[in-house]
Amino acid sequence: MAHPLILASASPRRRALLGQLGVPFEVEAAEVTECEDPAREPRSLVAHNAALKADWVSRRHPDAIVLGADTTVFIDSTVLNKPADEAEARAMLRRLSGRTHTVFTGMALRCASSGLRLDEGVSSEVTFKPLGEPEIDAYLALVHPYDKAGGYSIQDHTDLIVEGYEGSFTNIMGLPMEALKQILTRCGVLA
């Protein structure tokens, strides 16, 4: 590969997903302050944050291809980012209970030396089972919700909370692999 690939995220889920492609990459978490305005339009929010991360790392590694990504949950015209504490995680799960919401992920690919600038957005729909306090208690006893948009993880104990989904499962996890493979192929990272 002419340019090394860097993931501009400390997310263990994104690292594991990208690792499935079999392409060598490094990880460097961008030291940026993400926009978390719950009233902001979600596609714009995740696109902004993904670009912010990719641009920050790309400035420090101009010859690398840098991937930035950001994911959020959207329901009732409101963005649900990462909960600050257990009370907020519980409130998010109550709000999602028995309803369908949208998960948006923005991806930004940058290479400063070549001028590469690709941006992509993906959305998926998730429907939750009706959740009472016992179900929320059981879920929170098993899953650490504080680093997850909407306070949940689609891949962890899904049977407790999720009734179904439409679209990319890996998008709901935080990195839409189908779209990412196409982007990386277009820019020569994947054959």
How is the secondary structure organized here?
Elements: E1 5-7, H1 12-19, E2 26-27, H2 42-60, E3 65-75, E4 78-80, H3 86-96, E5 100-111, E6 116-128, H4 133-142, H5 158-161, E7 162-166, H6 169-173, H7 177-186
Parallel strand pairs: 1-2, 1-3
Antiparallel strand pairs: 3-4, 3-5, 5-6, 6-7
Question: Describe it for me?
Answer:
- This protein is an alpha/beta fold.
- The chain is built from seven helices and seven strands; from the N terminus they run βαβαββαββααβαα.
- The radius of gyration is 17 Å and the shape is elongated.
Keywords:
26% strand; alpha/beta
Return the structural class: alpha/beta
Distance between the termini: 10 Å
Beta-strand segment tally:
7
Count of all domains: 1
Annotated CATH architecture: Alpha-Beta Complex
Query: Per DSSP, what share of the residues sits in E-state strands of 2 or more residues?
Result: 25-35%
Assembly type: single chain
Spell out the helices and strands N to C.
Answer: EHEHEEHEEHHEHH
CATH class: Alpha Beta
Largest sheet: 7 strands, mixed
What value does the average pLDDT take?
Answer: 94
Number of helices: 7
**Unreliable stretches:** none
Helix content: 25-40%
- Radius of gyration, taken over Cα atoms and rounded to an integer in Å: 17 Å
Quick synopsis:
The chain contains seven helices and seven strands, in the order βαβαββαββααβαα.
